[in-house]
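#struct-pred

JT: dropping the chains for the assembly here, can someone run the whole complex?
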Amino acid sequence: MYPDNLKYHKEHTWVKVSGNKATVGITFYAQESLGDIVYVDTPEIDSTIEAGTELTQIESTKATSSVISPVSGTVVEFNEELGDSPEIINEDSYEKGWVAIIEVEDDSELEGLLDADEYEKYIEEEVKLK
Amino acid sequence: MKVTVLGAGPGGYVAALKAAQMGADVTVIEESEVGGTCLNWGCIPTKTLIASAEVLHKTRNAKSFGLELEGTISPNIEKIVERKNKVVGTQIKGIRGLFKSWGVNLVEGRGEIVSPKKIKITNKEGSTTEIETDKIIIATGSKPAQIPVFPFDGKRILSSDHAINPDSIPKSLLIVGAGVIGCEFAFIYKEFGSEVTMVEMMPNAVSTEDEEISAILERELKKNKIKLLKETSVEKVDVKGDGVSVQLSNGKTVEAEKVLVSIGRAVNSRNIGLEAVGVNTGQRGDIIVDSTMQTNVEGIYAIGDVVGGIMLAHLASTEGTVAAENAMGGNSKVNYDVVPAAIFTSPEIGSVGLREKQAVEKGLKYKVGRFQFRALGKAHAMGEIVGLFKIIADQETDKILGAHIIGAHASDLIHEIALAMEKGLTVKDIAHTIHSHPTLAEGIMEAAEDVHDAAIHAPKK
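RK: done, full complex below.
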């Protein structure tokens, strides 16, 4: 449920970096908490974003939530497939259900993120607190 | 007492009926058709078009309700307009019937004030008559405002008057102005099959609404693939053989088959004799009135769109009632603090009282309660989960300062709060009122509870 090759942000997003391109999406836990996703808003392409701020918003049958960017950079691509089929995120939140690609200048930010084991522990704690 | 009303729109006809009920000898002068803009070119025509668009939308989404549709569905614009005309026709008959019933004398022609006691009427054929009167109520309304460099031609450059009577659905439509009128038409034409682009000078669509409501509507525009260009204005319009080329302030050019200009409305205060009797007007020609709806000339009242301010049919009707009562010797006033308003976008918007920004500007101490439509069982059953209830309440008195609803039936739902505000009730009063289940109105109760962080169907904060 939490692939080892990804890095995780505490706001329940993941990132996979290849060169200077960071692919970003929401975690299995996030999609499960949201329930059926009905709409993914398009982030503004070419806009710059800071790590820890809102990349875009996702609407599910339960709630409207912010997708928090795990990295800083320039938003260069949105997963257009989500426009007509937002439910892809529920089906496959790590591959087909990626949300956006962000061009990063400095990948040192990744060190501050969690690995799969740490993230899994973190959500266990979070669930207990709830 | 002889009362003469200029204009039989929602302001004028209500004023006429009220005065007649109070025993006046009433004449109404109307140069076009009873019901005015509201009934003939505004509220009612657009709502019938929206009704057609909604059936179309629901049918197209039949599958999501477990329904199999054989064949396709498409709009027949001729039939849609025919239905609209039928609805309008029925309402016109209704008003004419009420005039007859209350003995209101309807004169068809154009009225011009000669003196506070005399009005000249010119009929269609050009012949004139003069009538004597004791009091005058001016209710001449407004018309679509146009941009002088590209005036309406009814073919390529349309006003809302044209947009309610389309002879075809344009492949592409550029709407100048994303206010109430522009947004309503955007959803209608998009559903009927046009590619719709909107250009708006302000930073938000429906910029007079609460900012949270605007933001939700903007997302719905996006979901419906209606393009909205904000903080953008039109620089130049070139009408060509097969369409219109529009140059924008952002340097881009948009091509469209037709352009709808919906930048607001201009008051009808010219050539009705205001100068002859010295009625004061403001910068935009709006007639200046006091709190009793009387102009600076004794015995001459003005109501509705022609006095400027908020141009709403129901406010015109209220002002008409007040003017009629005062013309008959009363001392009535309008409560402008509680004016509910409805926007028939998809989904609808209902609002009353202060926007949150206004509460901030006034330096008020307030609390906000919110509740999402998607937290209501009824909203899910209806397949209408988009929306928000928002109530702004005074922190100390708990009285409601304003409320904003976007979502299915918001235009009807808002009135519970309008009544509460009119009567000075608190949010606790609403929260303690039992609301039927399952209804959308439960959202008002929950939002009222949420002002004190006590909504039942919302997570702990």
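JT: nice. Chain A touches chain B at residues 38-39, 41-42, 57, 59, 61-64 (CB under 8 Å). Chain A has a mean pLDDT of 93.
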